[in-house]
């Protein structure tokens, strides 16, 4: 039972990769030109010195960190890739399950001054199980080849939808509480030595029909109108700044693409659709293409039922 579930969810990691784009700022009209005759020379403003970063969160594989950029930052980069910054200077970064041990965070001021910080990313020991069996293909190959590309295209298109949400700033709720049946990052190695894709999210063993809550504010980017081969009924919610939740195997989805959802709102019911052998809720979190661990973001589960 557990084996198939892991395989399916892990497989989804491989095929559900896509990239997201930030919303381009709306073009602003230039103010009309005004000719001013200076009465005395205007001193040039000195460059604003950069301060230091404030970071809050786990510098660990699968971890998510909220930050405040140094005052005067006009551009921010993580390992050379641009990171969007909110108007108040805050930002979010995260570290993939397989993130390297060192990352470089760099802020640049409008005058070209830079400040960088080397981040040490703690490694984790992932649950690896070695099996005496070979992987099984869950769907007849002909059906898979015919149907799957369209599903992947839908997922990738959803991840390109520009979203404006502040949910990424909020403390994340558990969308459902119950026994955690498969951890994020776990992986299987088969008899032939081939490693399966790792589990991209966390599985919560809840009965069919359990309400699924939005863990934070967001915008629905995909609400599948039929069960996908692997994910079943799939719901994607973007929380802004590249942070995204995916909920899989749902029995019913209550929201529609483009709809805003609020933290704690019931957005779906759990189920057993797609490639599963039993009812549970699979919850994945990503920051752009980095897969992150919901357990680190939502914290210890309380009030299990
Ligand atoms: Zn799963």
TrEMBL record:
Pfam families: Peptidase_M23 (PF01551). GO terms for molecular function: metalloendopeptidase activity. Residues 198-294 form the M23ase beta-sheet core domain. InterPro entries: Cell_wall_metabolism_enzyme, Dup_hybrid_motif, M23ase_b-sheet_dom. PROSITE patterns: PROKAR_LIPOPROTEIN. Residues 1-23 form the signal peptide. Coiled coil: none annotated. Keywords: Signal. It comes from the Bacteria. CDD domains: M23_peptidase (cd12797). SUPFAM superfamilies: Duplicated hybrid motif. This is M23 family metallopeptidase. It comes from Sphingomonas panacisoli.
């Amino acid at each position: 039972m557990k084996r198939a579930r892991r395989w399916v969810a892990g497989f989804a990691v491989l095929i559900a990769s896509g990239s997201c784009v930030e919303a381009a700022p709306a073009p602003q009209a230039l103010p009309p030109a005004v000719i001013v005759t200076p009465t005395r020379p205007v001193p040039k403003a000195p460059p604003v010195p950069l301060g230091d970063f404030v970071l809050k969160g786990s510098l660990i594989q699968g971890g998510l960190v909220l930050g405040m950029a140094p005052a005067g930052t006009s551009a921010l980069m993580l390992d050379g890739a641009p990171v969007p910054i909110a108007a108040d200077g805050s930002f979010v970064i995260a570290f993939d399950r397989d993130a390297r041990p060192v990352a470089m965070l760099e802020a640049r001021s409008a005058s070209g001054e830079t400040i960088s910080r080397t981040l040490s990313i703690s490694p984790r020991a992932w649950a690896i199980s070695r099996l005496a069996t070979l992987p099984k293909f869950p769907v007849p190959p002909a059906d898979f080849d015919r149907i799957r590309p369209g599903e992947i295209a839908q997922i990738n298109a959803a991840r390109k939808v520009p979203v404006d949400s502040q949910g990424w700033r909020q403390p994340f709720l558990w969308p459902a509480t119950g026994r955690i049946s498969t951890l994020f990052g776990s992986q299987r190695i088969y008899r032939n030595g081939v490693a399966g894709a790792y589990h991209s999210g966390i599985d919560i063993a809840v009965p069919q029909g359990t309400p699924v809550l939005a863990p934070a504010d967001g915008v629905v980017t995909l609400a599948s109108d039929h069960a996908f081969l692997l994910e079943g009924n799939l719901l994607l919610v973007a929380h802004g700044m590249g942070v995204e939740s995916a909920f899989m195997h749902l029995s019913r989805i209550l929201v529609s693409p483009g709809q805003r959802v609020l933290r704690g709102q019931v957005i779906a019911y759990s189920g057993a659709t797609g490639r599963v052998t039993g009812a549970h809720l699979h919850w994945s979190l990503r920051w752009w293409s980095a897969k992150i661990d919901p357990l680190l973001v939502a914290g210890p589960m309380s009030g299990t039922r």
